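Data deposition worksheet. Section B asks for the primary sequence of the deposited chain exactly as it was used as input, without tags or linkers unless they were present during the calculation. Section C holds the resulting structure in C-alpha cell form. Section D is free text for depositor observations; keep each observation to a single sentence. Incomplete worksheets are returned to the depositor.
Section A, Depositor: J.P.
Section B:
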Amino acid sequence: MGKLRLFAVLCFILFLFAPLYASGTAEEKPADSHPPPLISEKPAEKTEPVITKTGVEIKPAAAEPGIVPYKSNPVAVKAVEKSTALFTERIRERFAMWLSRSGKYLELMKEILKNKNVPEDIVFLSLIESGFNPYAYSVARAVGPWQFISATAKRYGLVIDWWRDERRDPVKSTEAAANYLSDLYGMFGSWNLAMAAYNAGEGRIMKALKRSKSDDYWPLLNTRHIKSETKNYVPRFIAATNIASNPEEFGFMNIEYHQPLNYDEVMVQGPIDLEIAAKCADTTIEVIKELNPELRRWCTPPGMPVYMLRIPSGTKEIFQKNLAEIPENERFTVAAYTVKKGNTIKKIAKRAGVPVKALFALNSMDSLKPLRYGTEINLPPKEKFQLDRDDRYDNRKASYKKSRSIKTKKSKNKKMLVTALNKKKTVVND
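Section C:
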C-alpha cells in the first residue's frame, strides 16, 4: 500500500513539471542546430567599431566582395565564363605575364587594402586594369596600376605635375584607389556596383540603376544603360581573381613570379640626379627608376626641399655615407642659358620644350619677372632630359590647336576677302 502511495506521488510531480521541462529544452537548443544564413547579393552594411570592456577597439571585419553568390545567377555565370575564356585562351601569354608581374606588388597592395578596410581580393582590379604595370597608359590618358584619370587622381590627393606623376607609384596609387573604392562602396552598398562605378563613374551607374529600377549590378548587363566595357568589368575581375587565386587549376603551370618589392627609404635634401642616387646606393639608374616610378625626369623635384627616395633594401647606410662625400653643387645637373635681347620666360620655355612652371622650379622663381640681358638661367640638361608620353601628347595637342587656329584664321580671311570683292562688284554694277 505504501509503495502504491509513493508511486502516485511521483506521477503527480512529473505531471506538474513536465510542461516546464519541455519548454526549457526547446529554448536551450544549440545555435548550430539552425540552418546557416543565406549569403545575400549585397554585403552587410558597415557597422560602428565595437568597444570591449577592456577598452580595446575592435574594427569590424572588411566586408567580402558582393560577388560570392554569382554562380546562382545564369547571366553572371555566362559572363564570367566568357571572361575566363578570354584570359585562358585568347590572351593566355599576356595574362601569364601579368600573373608573373603580380608577385612584385601583390602583398604590398593587399596590406594597404586591408588597412583601409577594403577586401583584399580587390587587388585584382589592378590585374585587369593594367596587368600590375606602373607605366600603363590608356587612350583616355588613364595612368598607372590603378588607371586613374587626372581629375579623379587629384581628387584623391595624387600629385601630377611636370616632375612627377603619383598615379604611377604602387603605394600612393593603391592608397588612393582604396579610398575611392571605399567611398563608392559607401555610396552603393555593393562591391560589384562600386567596381562598376570605378570603371564608368558613379554618376553613370546611379543613372543606370535608376533607369533599370534595380539595386544590383547583374541586371544591368541586359540593358543599354551601361557600356560593354562596364558590362565586362566585374565578370573580368571575378575571372581574374579565380585564376590568380589558383592558376594551376586553369592550366597556368610554373608561373615565375617576380620578387616582392623591397626597398629602403631615405630623405634627400634638395634635388638630386637619379644617376647620382644610383651611384650612392651602388646600383643602376634603372633600379632607382623602377623603385621610384612616379619620377618623370632625371632628378627628384627641384621645388621640394626634401624628398623621400626609395633605394634598394640594405643600402641606406652606404647611400648616406656616399652622398655626404658629394658637394651639394655637384648633386644636381642643369644647363646654363644666357638671356638674350627680347627673351622672356615664356619664349625660353617654349624653345626648350618645357612648361613655364618647370623653369620656375629650376630657377627658384615664383612668378613671371622681366629677364635681364646677359644673366644666366637654368634649363634642363639636353643629355639627361627626355620627353615622356605625356609631353609628346601635350606637344601634339598644342600643334593641333595651332594648326586649327591657322586654318580658322585663313578661312576667316578668305570669307572677308570674298565679302569685300562681292561688295566691290555690286558697287561697280550699280
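Section D:
Residues 9-67 have pLDDT under 50 and may be disordered.
The radius of gyration is 33 Å.
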